[in-house]
Amino acid sequence: MNNELTRQFETLFGEAGSAHHRAFIQVNGEDDAWALWYANYLCERLGILLNRTFEPTELADTLERLETGRKAYGIGNWARYYAESFVREAETVVSVY
Question: N or C end of the chain: smaller count of CB under 10 Å?
């Protein structure tokens, strides 16, 4: 696994989390549409790192899937889990071609 890319993703997800918290501070970070908010925040940034484009709805679906998996496995560090998952999936796609 590409450790540098994983670190960059983890940092990016952490920044998104902080930005989301600031945006929704009045409601203590509660946001039923959190995945779409994160997707809109992350689409361009993730696309640059992976040299591809994302549709916000596609990315939101992926984030929701990752969150379900994170909770099922009892993983506390969501940013690292998301980063590792994205890098693993990106490497799988690249190795297929």
Answer: C
